[in-house]
Amino acid sequence: MFLEQSWLSYLKDMITKLKERRTGSHIRLASYFKETEHKITIPNHVSIKIGTLNSILSDIANYLKMTKRELVEELFGK
User: Fold this and answer.
1) Contacts of 14 (CB under 8 A, 6+ apart)
2) Cα separation of 27 and 34, whole Å?
3) Which of 12, 22, 23, 38 is the most buried (most CB within 10 A)?
4) pLDDT (tens digit, 9 = 90+) per residue, 17-31?
5) pLDDT score of 2
6) Residue 49: strand, helix, or coil
7) How far apart are CA 59 and CA 78, in angstroms?
8) Which sign does the torsion angle of CA 48, 53, 54, 59 carry?
9) With the CA atoms of 60, 64, 68 and 74 taken in that order, what torsion angle do they form, in degrees rounded to the nearest 10?
10) Mean pLDDT of 54-60
11) What is the pLDDT of residue 1?
12) Could you say which DSSP state residue 35 is in?
């Protein structure tokens, strides 16, 4: 399901309009896609726990007003 490629726009916005703050081994990202600020803190590790990844994906999907399953399908295919 393509929602005007909202997930792609969101990720591009996270990268190009990045307000980055590093604290220890975490990175704080802020995006202004959808005209509202969205902040997320992600670990800057080689690998992360599955629960952490689940939380990150759920948070982004909620912001984009789509299900986590739709987001995962958009990002990684079926």
Assistant:
1) 29, 31, 33
2) 21
3) 38
4) 555 566 678 888 888
5) 43
6) coil
7) 20
8) positive
9) -100
10) 91
11) 40
12) G
* Residue partners of 39: CB distance under 8 A and separation at least 6: 28, 29, 30, 31
Three-state SS at 18: coil
Q: Which residue, among 59, 67, 65, 64, has the nearest Cα to 39 in the 3D structure?
A: 59
The token duo for 46 is: 């080689």
Report how far residue 4's alpha carbon sits from residue 34's, in angstroms, rounded to the nearest whole number.
Answer: 12
Residue 7: count other Cβ atoms within 10 Å of its Cβ: 21
Length of the chain: 78
Taking the C-alpha atoms of residue 46 and residue 59, their distance in angstroms, rounded to an integer, is 21
